[in-house]
Amino acid sequence: MRIFDPHIHMTSRTTDDYRAMYDAGVRALVEPSFWLGQPRTSPASFFDYFDALLGWEPFRASQYGIAHHCTLALNPKEANDPRCTPVLDALPRYLVKDGVVAVGEIGYDSMTPAEDHALAAQLQLAADHGLPALVHTPHRDKLAGLHRTIDVIRESNLPPEHVLLDHLNETTVKAAADSGCWAGFSIYPDTKMDEDRMVTILRNHGTEKMIVNSAADWGKSDPLKTRKVADAMLKAGFTEDDVDQVLWRNPVAFYGQSGRLQLDVPAPDQLHEGNSILRGGE
Ligand SMILES: [Zn+2]
Question: What is the pTM of this model?
């Protein structure tokens, strides 16, 4: 089984996670830029983070046989902080880099005018750079937030098939599918969406343009949720081809629109033995 986790924050995870993900079948992933858990105090903080997502983290993933890509953006939460918004002016020089497969995560957090501005500006940046966009839907006021997000996408120059609407659930899946965008679902350990609810959604809405991720980060989350959805799908009677479509071909098709996916990473046992850079504490 081959798995592509299209939304996971590996910066917050350990090398044990990389190993367990490889053993579970994960061969590629996308790491969207997000906030740090505490406020950034200047745009320079973004630059160091973006550089890590483009350099260090792909290297670390490659040591475990996993292809790493990223999406870069000013995230919705920090769109409200004037210490952070100048990063919008610097994004164009990052969006031309090879490891960047989309603009994201963008979208609404509290639906403020500052978030309106950041969302519209970054949808335009995606259009300008020929990149798709990863658009997160708010955890509060989900349906209202989704409708407003879809309105802004319709007014943008980005076609809906270049947009992945993420963090969907039963209440938002229909509106998202009707919009023509790709539908993303984040599977969490005990709140929000779980693997059995995901299987029911796939049964009711089909597997076309449906994308599943673990969204694992430094909070309570599980980097193996993609594999657990695959297993739950098989148990519920979906075929291996259905699983391959949802867990591999769909994310490859979506992010492949960037023209920048590089999926050929050697397996860990083919990697050079003497590479000790990832040993703890060094
Ligand atoms: Zn995320």
Answer: 0.94
